[in-house]
Amino acid sequence: MATASESAVQAWKDKAASFARRELEPLAAEIDRTDLLPEAVVAALGREGFLGLGTPARWGGQGGGAREFVAVLEELAAANPAIAVVLAVHVSVCAAPILAWGTDAQRETYLPDLAGGRRLGAFALTEPGAGSDAAALRTRYRTVASGYELNGSKMFISNAASAGAIVLFATRDPALGPAGISAFVVPPGTPGFSVAQRFDKLGLRGSETTELVLDRVKLPPEALLGPEGRGLAIALSALAGGRVGIASCALGVARAALEEMRRNVRADDTEWKRQLLGSSYAELLAARALVEEAARRKDADEPFVDQASAAKLLASRAAVAIASRGLDVGGEAATRQGSAAERIFRDARVFPIVEGTSEIQELLLARGFLKASDGRTV
Ligand SMILES: Cc1cc2nc3c(=O)[nH]c(=O)nc-3n(C[C@H](O)[C@H](O)[C@H](O)COP(=O)(O)OP(=O)(O)OC[C@H]3O[C@@H](n4cnc5c(N)ncnc54)[C@H](O)[C@@H]3O)c2cc1C
Predict the structure, then answer these.
(1) 109-147, pLDDT tens digit by residue?
(2) What is the domain extent for residue 340?
(3) Do 124 and 167 touch, CB atoms closer than 8 A?
(4) Can you list the alpha helix ranges (DSSP code H) found in 102-230?
(5) The pTM is what?
(6) Is the residue at 375 inside a domain?
């Protein structure tokens, strides 16, 4: 019999599947072509309660844990991964660190609006010279009479142009290394804060990715998130949780690729096509098992960081591999610009990069494995 939590997961999954069929599937090709996400779709995410997942009812959210969240993200991403990434960023790396590290006043200011869809959340860590090596960031802050002043720039930031809250990282002095980095919550419309450019991407089109400039941005003392000097720890813990969500988005894309491949393979078709379908199906099932295990461990407060990296690495890899085979199976028609297989392939190809590249996941896993192998069985 299904436990209460299993039925809750199933209820969210069903809700997301029906929303995806109704609101996202009909728009997927148009969103990709125009690179624009209709405001009504983002508003609907709030109305359906998806933006409040993971935020307790006390702060205006829907509650729920990682298992509900990955079930929802897989369904949305299978129809449109751009909207799933908007949601993943909003919940995992904006609302979650405000909930985990914020004061009650910060939670009161931001969480009900984030959960209700009145504000969209963003996370600004990456810089032109600091991607994989986040500790090398150069955006500076200094203490001034009114609080803090920030100067610098941020690169490839999702959701930021329309964000109502940005969790942003800056250093007091790059020479201090990780100990110099602090986290801030930046509200929209802060003078000196601007969007310098919006990038025209290969895939995940519709999910805006922007460069931000901070020119003498003044923030009050209450904009500091968590203790001063703990910014890197805040970023890394948010990203570990974020990887579970991004892995489930990649899983949704892998599923869409497999479903598209199935349309091109009949039971009496050539053996090589059926073999590609079979091995792709196995990879999808393996990726889903990893995503679900990472989410289960996170909800159970068990160590989940290695599982999150493994899920992100292998679900992204599965998405790219299955989408690529989909082009082989679909042949010339699949490679035409605007075909579903071609769009899915472009979307899949972004996942090994976003929220920590595949190479970085491998390095993190090697570190985790070496530590875990020290006297224990993995
Ligand atoms: C669509 C999209 C959305 C994004 N959204 C956000 C966001 O909302 N917020 C945010 O802060 N960032 C965001 N990013 C940035 C993303 O996290 C970075 O692109 C990613 O961390 C890689 O950084 P980089 O692009 O600077 O590449 P680099 O770090 O310069 O890496 C380039 C290549 O070198 C490899 N490499 C780097 N270091 C090592 C190493 N030590 N060993 C082996 N290989 C290495 C990498 O794996 C990669 O293949 C987004 C990126 C994309 C594409």
Answers:
(1) 999 999 999 999 999 999 999 999 999 999 999 999 999
(2) 232-370
(3) yes
(4) 104-116
(5) 0.96
(6) no
